[in-house]
Amino acid sequence: MRLDPGPAALAVAVMLLLCAAAAGAGQAEELHYPQGEHRADYDREALLGVQEDVDEYVKLGPEEQQKRLQAIIKKIDSDSDGFLTEGELSQWIQMSFKHYAMQEAKQQFVEYDKNSDGTVTWDEYNIQMYDRVIDFDDNTALDDAEEESFRQLHLKDKKRFEKANQDSSPGLSLEEFIAFEHPEEVDYMTEFVIQEALEEHDKNGDGFVSLEEFLGDYRRDPTANEDPEWILVEKDRFVNDYDKDSDGRLDPQELLSWVVPNNQGIAQEEAVHLIGEMDLNGDKKLSAEEVLESQDLFLTSEATDYGRQLHDDYFYHDEL
Prior knowledge:
Keywords: Calcium, Metal-binding, Repeat, Signal. It is a single chain. The chain is mainly alpha-helical. Helix content is 60%, strand content 4%. The chain has a two-stranded antiparallel ribbon with strand order 1-6. A two-stranded antiparallel ribbon has the order 2-3. It has a two-stranded antiparallel sheet with strand order 4-5. The longest helix has 27 residues, at 86-112. The chain is globular and about 65 Å long.
């Protein structure tokens, strides 16, 4: 049965959809970098997974741990020259990101497929997310600001769901569900991601995103002498990271680099960090001996997904 969302249901749904990101961003950042100092143990606690995974990591004996780590080092060394370069580390970390994103999507698919028929319908998605089927009128705005914000987000999810559905069947296959959850990983969703971003940010409809549109609703305090720090950071990102042709606006491809998670950049930064910390002889690459010398650092880095790869034979098995 399809239900219109009542006020109580909407309140819960709004909290589910809007608060998770906001809470995670501030609290996680503070725990991860207290007073600006990186906490490696937080990485292990947060990213090894549930407590059972942490317990399993602790149980792994030193000999077996080193054996599996050596197997992973061998896999990272794609040209088999005995050294890990920045490029090899970056590629490995990106592969790890994608692998775990796909694994998570596959697990979610099973949870969302309520009748176990091998597809996830829009109703099943709603039931998993909100415990009921929510249906909004596309053309009727809601008076309450939070409820209207939720309506807009819900309609965007619906459009992305429909775009991921390539064969127009009632539900999404596993491959289509992955495209819905991770459109940045699927080529046929790229145009949709760009258009969705333009609809949200391109206020004057010229097909580009200007710096003003990039900054959103920000308006400088007329009594302030300069912009706040976060605005200066955002302006720097716009100029130096995204506006590649320096024309003062983001074209669709430049926009894509902003709205899609830049795993390549994150992986590159981590690779540079690891070599900077572990390269004992200054040759800008890591030998197996250098990695093993700094084993604890390597196991609290994205190169091993904070140690989780030691428990996933996809990474340390010989046939990878």
